[in-house]
Design a protein that fits this description.
Aminopeptidase; 7-stranded mixed β-sheet; 24% strand; alpha+beta; single chain; 217 residues; globular; 2 domains
C-alpha cells in the first residue's frame, strides 16, 4: 500500500506501513550503533602464564556444573599437569583464550577428532573433523550473546584452515543454554550419542553449510 499525504500540510500520514518501516529502520540503526560500540571477540593461543587464571575459571560454579561434572574442583597443580602440555603444543588439543577487546572472557579448545583416544570418536575416519569446547568465565556475561559470538569466532578460525571439513561438539542433553548457543552459531543437532562422559547431543557444522551461509561459491 502506498503511503498517503495530508492534502492540507503535505506531510506523510502515519499509516501502519509507514510506522512499521520507521520502526524497522530505527531497529537497524540501533543494531548498527550497538555493533559499532561492542569490541570484537578474538581468540589467541593460551600460554603458560594463563594457567593460574584458567585455574580460577575452572573452579567457578557455573563452569564446574558442565565442565568438571562430579569431579573434584582442580587444584592449580592439576591444572598445570593437564593443560600445560596443551599450552606447549605437546598434545593434539589446541587451547585458546577468548578476548573481548583487551579483556579475557573465556576458554576454548579445538582438537582433531580422529584418534582422540580414551573412547572418544572411535568411528571417525575423516582427519579433517575438529571437535570444540568452550566456556565463558564470568557468569554475569551469560545470556548476552557472547557465547554465540565466541563460537562463531572459533568456527571462523577453524574453517580458515582449508583441510578442516567439519566441526562437531557434544553438549550434555540438559545443557539447554549451550545447545541454543550452538544452534545460533550455525550448528545442527544430529542425534543423541553415548560418550565416555555420558549421553550427549551430537551437533555439527559442515564446511559446505558454513560457506553457503557466508555466500561462498
Amino acid at each position: 500500500m502506498k503511503d498517503q499525504h495530508d492534502k492540507r500540510t503535505g506531510n506523510l500520514l502515519a499509516t501502519p506501513n509507514a510506522i512499521r518501516q520507521a520502526r524497522f529502520a530505527e531497529q537497524q540503526r540501533a543494531m548498527g550503533r550497538k555493533a559499532a560500540s561492542t569490541p570484537p571477540i578474538t581468540l589467541r593461543l593460551m600460554t603458560e602464564r594463563d594457567l593460574p587464571m584458567l585455574h580460577d575459571w575452572l573452579n567457578r560454579p557455573h563452569i564446574v556444573e558442565w565442565w568438571g561434572g562430579d569431579e573434584e574442583r582442580p587444584t592449580l597443580d592439576e591444572v598445570l599437569e593437564h593443560y600445560l602440555p596443551r599450552a606447549m603444543a605437546e598434545e593434539s588439543v589446541t587451547p585458546y583464550i577468548a578476548m573481548l577487546g583487551e579483556e579475557p572472557i573465556g576458554y576454548a579448545q579445538s582438537y582433531v577428532a580422529l584418534g582422540s583416544g580414551d573412547g572418544w570418536w572411535e568411528d571417525e575416519t575423516d582427519p579433517g573433523v575438529r571437535g570444540i569446547d568452550q566456556s565463558l568465565a564470568d557468569p554475569t556475561q551469560l545470556n548476552k550473546g557472547l557465547g554465540t559470538r565466541l563460537v562463531r569466532a572459533l568456527v571462523e578460525l577453524l574453517f580458515s584452515d582449508p583441510t578442516v571439513t567439519k566441526i562437531q561438539t557434544d553438549p550434555t542433553p540438559n545443557n539447554h543454554r549451550a545447545i541454543r548457543c550452538y544452534e545460533k552459531a550455525g550448528f545442527v543437532r544430529e542425534k543423541i550419542i553415548t560418550t565416555p562422559d555420558g549421553p550427549a547431543v551430537y551437533m555439527v557444522q559442515t564446511r559446505q553449510a558454513f560457506e553457503r551461509k557466508r555466500g561462498v561459491a
